[in-house]
């Protein structure tokens, strides 16, 4: 499921990036293309007024030669003009280019056939042309034929667009290459950040799977005890309750264990709900901790524990219920894991904005290899599993969730067969 989600996320993100790149590059290309077309159109449709006098052209039966002039107009690009008669034959050529008469005649024929305009190839260059009616008046030397303003003439204008087209092709190629490069780059970036973003989700998914497996296992044990002992009861229906009391005690213990586990799970579900707002009230932290210790006086006495308290007066704004649950977890752990006739020390101190609370107790301690995992859900060392049947491995995990919500952190240090110390660093809003 996680792999499918990751692949889908990478595909969607990469597709979105690709769409943005395509749109951006198409806009860039179209902008450049329209700019080039607009410039070409302006140059082709540039209005000119040209007066020619004193020129000479011969019109005989064998050959007609067009009158030719050579001009260079700044900003007009590479172009040439031709004035043609009503049959499309060149009358005048306005060109500073070294083209043959054959090329000029070919250009005139092509343009005359397609007077709507277009692009043609002359030599090794591409030319865009337009054909438009013209008003021409050419005065020639006496004896030569004359063209007046009333004669039907047309102006053909040819603009060299070879370099402009080449620039557009190069731009398109550059955009494609750059686009593919950026797409590969963004694809790798998406993979990298997706993997980083998915890592907490994978860990949460694995934690959830492990949580379900552990919870199922923990519930399976008391259910198995209840089921087995019920089977014994059903097989001995004639016996009295007193005779069956051993099996009933086993069922009761299994029920108590399952009830305790369910309550722990409900507490964990509440502390895991980070979206539920905290109820901040003014709390005497030392008094709350002192009351929690008082509640365990009888239990401490049953194990003949020596309890030492070093509390200082601290009033803060915090969630009283969560703080009380936090204290109960550590006091209960201290009672449970302190050895007979052992000692428990609870102390408070202030360090800047922090309130530091220490729970130090004697006992079996925690092996060094188990210290990094003591806050994992359902984690218990082998010694704890064998010695304490009422331990679920949830208390410290719940405590860590609580302390993350009210602000702070927990640290632990332990020496096997000597002592264990939990230190709470609480970031409380002190009054």
TrEMBL record:
<feature type="domain" description="Histidine kinase">
    <location>
        <begin position="214"/>
        <end position="430"/>
    </location>
</feature>
<dbReference type="Pfam" id="PF02518">
    <property type="entry name" value="HATPase_c"/>
</dbReference>
<dbReference type="InterPro" id="IPR003594">
    <property type="entry name" value="HATPase_dom"/>
</dbReference>
<dbReference type="GO" id="GO:0000155">
    <property type="term" value="F:phosphorelay sensor kinase activity"/>
</dbReference>
<keyword id="KW-0418">Kinase</keyword>
<keyword id="KW-0472">Membrane</keyword>
<feature type="transmembrane region" description="Helical">
    <location>
        <begin position="171"/>
        <end position="193"/>
    </location>
</feature>
<protein>
    <recommendedName>
        <fullName>histidine kinase</fullName>
        <ecNumber>2.7.13.3</ecNumber>
    </recommendedName>
</protein>
<dbReference type="GO" id="GO:0016020">
    <property type="term" value="C:membrane"/>
</dbReference>
<keyword id="KW-0808">Transferase</keyword>
<feature type="transmembrane region" description="Helical">
    <location>
        <begin position="12"/>
        <end position="34"/>
    </location>
</feature>
<keyword id="KW-0812">Transmembrane</keyword>
<dbReference type="InterPro" id="IPR036890">
    <property type="entry name" value="HATPase_C_sf"/>
</dbReference>
<keyword id="KW-0902">Two-component regulatory system</keyword>
<dbReference type="Pfam" id="PF00512">
    <property type="entry name" value="HisKA"/>
</dbReference>
<dbReference type="InterPro" id="IPR005467">
    <property type="entry name" value="His_kinase_dom"/>
</dbReference>
<dbReference type="InterPro" id="IPR036097">
    <property type="entry name" value="HisK_dim/P_sf"/>
</dbReference>
<dbReference type="InterPro" id="IPR050736">
    <property type="entry name" value="Sensor_HK_Regulatory"/>
</dbReference>
<dbReference type="InterPro" id="IPR004358">
    <property type="entry name" value="Sig_transdc_His_kin-like_C"/>
</dbReference>
<keyword id="KW-1133">Transmembrane helix</keyword>
<keyword id="KW-0597">Phosphoprotein</keyword>
<dbReference type="InterPro" id="IPR003661">
    <property type="entry name" value="HisK_dim/P_dom"/>
</dbReference>
């Amino acid at each position: 499921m996680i792999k499918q989600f990751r692949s889908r996320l990478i595909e969607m993100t990469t597709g979105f990036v690709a769409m943005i790149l395509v749109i951006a590059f198409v806009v860039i290309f179209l902008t450049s293309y329209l700019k080039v077309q607009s410039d070409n159109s302006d140059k082709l449709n540039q209005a000119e007024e040209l007066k020619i006098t004193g020129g000479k052209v011969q019109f005989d039966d064998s050959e007609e030669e067009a009158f030719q002039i050579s001009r260079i107009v700044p900003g007009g690009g590479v172009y040439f003009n031709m004035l043609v008669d009503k049959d499309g034959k060149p009358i005048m050529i306005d060109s500073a280019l070294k083209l043959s008469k054959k090329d000029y005649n070919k250009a005139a024929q092509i343009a005359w056939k397609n007077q709507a305009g277009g692009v043609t190839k002359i030599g090794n260059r591409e030319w865009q042309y337009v054909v438009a009616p013209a008003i021409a008046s050419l005065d020639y030397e006496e004896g030569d034929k004359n063209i007046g303003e009333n004669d039907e003439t047309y102006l053909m204008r040819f603009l060299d667009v070879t370099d402009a087209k080449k620039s557009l092709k190069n731009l398109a190629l550059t955009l494609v290459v750059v686009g593919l490069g950026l797409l590969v780059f963004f694809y790798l970036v998406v993979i990298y950040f997706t993997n980083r973003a998915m890592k907490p989700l994978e860990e949460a998914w694995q934690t959830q799977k492990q949580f379900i497996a552990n919870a199922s296992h923990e519930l399976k044990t008391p259910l198995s005890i209840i089921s087995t002992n019920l089977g014994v009861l059903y097989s001995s229906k004639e016996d009295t309750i007193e005779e069956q009391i051993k099996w009933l005690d086993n069922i009761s213990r299994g029920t108590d264990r399952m009830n305790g586990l369910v309550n722990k799970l409900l507490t964990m579900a509440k502390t895991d709900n980070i979206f539920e707002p905290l109820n901040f009230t003014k709390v005497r932290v030392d008094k709350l901790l002192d009351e929690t210790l008082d509640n365990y006086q009888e239990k401490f006495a049953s194990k003949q524990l020596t309890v030492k308290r070093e509390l200082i007066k601290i009033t803060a704004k915090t969630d009283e219920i969560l703080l009380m649950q936090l204290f109960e977890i550590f006091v209960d752990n201290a009672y449970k894991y302190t050895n007979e006739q052992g000692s428990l020390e609870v102390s408070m101190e202030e360090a800047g904005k922090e309130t530091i609370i220490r729970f130090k107790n004697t006992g079996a301690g925690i092996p060094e290899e188990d210290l990094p995992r003591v806050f994992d859900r359902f984690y218990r060392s082998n010694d704890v599993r064998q010695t304490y049947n009422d331990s679920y491995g949830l208390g410290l995990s719940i405590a860590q969730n609580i302390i993350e919500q009210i602000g702070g952190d927990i640290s632990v240090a332990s020496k096997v067969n000597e002592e264990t110390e939990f230190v709470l660093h609480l970031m409380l809003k002190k009054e």
